[in-house]
Design goal:
The chain has 212 residues and is of the alpha/beta class. It has helices at residues 11-22, 54-61, 81-96, 129-143, 187-200; strands at residues 2-6, 26-31, 44-48, 66-69, 100-104, 111-113, 116-117, 149-154, 158-160, 169-172, 184-186, 206-211. A hairpin with a 2-residue loop joins β6 and β7. α1 crosses α5 (187-200), α2 crosses α3 and α3 packs parallel to α4. The mean pLDDT is 98.
């Protein structure tokens, strides 16, 4: 598959690039700088664009089989830029005629009970509420795009650099947690789950939780 990967220089995006390349896919990796350190592969090229610019997204997306996103706001940026990026990506894909989108989302919008999302729980860290809310707003933009074959793949509540075990579980719309209530996934296994979904298309039009 020929994949346009937005956010390829990021912590999660870099691991998704590694996973895609290890499976023989061709990857165009995007960041604002156009630099992605540590990947030396003939099937990988890097391009600098601003993912809030739908014209640039459209120009670059054209001819790819799918768009993958691991976009996130820069450290000092307003978190709502994530919503701008989701709008530009959806519009750019429509212009380019590319249908398949797999988006790295947030766990905050996943349900932990019948009427309760993770972000609404008492223990949810106050500092994370704005990014969690922005990620839900981005979900609203993406999920309204019925004409695209989108999947919004969310990490567990906690995601960190770790090991690639190849093991994970998924749940549609719900937080994945273990028997002790811990919700965790390594970035490497999140990349496995993400690329599995990109390849299989098993969960089109789904907010998909991942974890152990
Ligand atoms: N438990 C959870 O729910 C959870 C936990 C962690 C992360 N996440 C989500 O996962 C996503 C990725 O997280 P991460 O930690 O990997 O983020 P990150 O390391 O900050 O990477 C963000 C990527 O987006 C790129 N980017 C930012 N603005 C851009 C723009 N305007 N145009 C083009 N590229 C742009 C960055 O590259 P440049 O800066 O070089 O442009 C970088 O490649 C985020 O949306 C984050 O909210 C969720």
């Amino acid at each position: 598959m020929d994949v346009l990967l937005l956010g390829a220089s990021g912590r999660i995006g870099h691991r998704i690039a590694d996973e895609l390349l290890s499976r023989g896919h061709t990857v165009t990796g995007v960041s604002r700088s156009g630099h992605v350190d540590g990947i030396d592969d003939p099937d990988f090229e890097t391009v600098a664009i601003d993912a809030t610019n739908e014209v640039d997204v459209a120009d670059l997306a054209e001819g790819h089989d799918a768009v993958a996103s691991a976009l996130g706001p820069g450290e000092d940026e307003d978190v709502d830029v994530l919503v701008e990026m989701s709008e530009a990506v959806v519009a750019g894909m429509r212009d380019a005629g590319v249908d398949r989108l797999v988006w790295t989302g947030g766990a905050g919008g996943l349900y932990v009970g019948p009427d309760t999302r993770l972000v609404e729980t008492e223990d949810f860290p106050e500092d994370w509420v704005p990014i969690a809310r922005a990620a839900i707003d981005a979900y609203d933009v993406i999920s309204a795009a019925d004409d695209l074959e989108w999947t919004y793949v969310a990490p567990a509540a906690l995601i960190e650099p770790g090991e690639r075990t190849g093991e994970y579980r998924t749940a549609e719309g719900e937080l994945v947690a273990d028997d002790d209530g811990e919700s965790y996934i390594s970035m490497e296994d999140f990349a496995v789950a993400f690329v599995d979904e990109l390849e299989s298309g098993d969960h089109v039009h789904t907010y998909l939780g991942t974890g152990y």
